[in-house]
Specification:
- By secondary structure, the chain is an all-alpha fold.
- Helices cover 83% and strands 0% of the residues.
């Protein structure tokens, strides 16, 4: 039952980290075409997207990793890799193919930003697991 609560509590840090990762991606790559003027609206859309994304992707992953993986190093690798995989998906949802080609946007930036968000998620997950008693 502890793992179940822990997995649902991690929805909050996931939403924050991945919303800011999507926002950071727009700041870095959107700066090439000056589309970052709608920052608050974009942040709201990114937060909504991550709210929907968590139950599909990271809720089951967090549940399984929390239940079976004890090593912090393996958790960091799993969450960072999984987030890096989400990066190109988010990049393609944010930017159209023609938009990517026209402004020469880099998908590597997305992988790096979302990978860093996954690394931070793993560290927050470990901190919650150690410091919150019912988790």
């Amino acid at each position: 039952m502890k793992t179940f609560y822990h997995s649902f509590i991690m929805w909050i840090p996931f939403g924050l980290l991945f919303s800011f990762a999507a926002f950071g991606l727009d700041i870095v790559e959107g700066n090439k075409n000056i589309t970052s003027a709608y920052a608050l609206i974009y942040l709201f859309i990114a937060a909504s997207f991550t709210f929907i994304l968590y139950p599909i992707s990271f809720l089951p992953l967090t549940f399984v990793v929390s239940k079976f993986v004890e090593s912090l190093l393996f958790r960091v690798v799993i969450f960072t890799f999984s987030s890096g995989v989400i990066g190109p998906f988010a990049f393609k949802k944010i930017y159209d193919f023609l938009f990517i080609e026209e402004y020469n946007l880099s998908i590597i930036t997305s992988i790096l930003i979302f990978g860093i968000a996954g690394l931070l998620y793993a560290l927050v997950e470990n901190s919650f697991k150690k410091n919150i008693k019912f988790v």
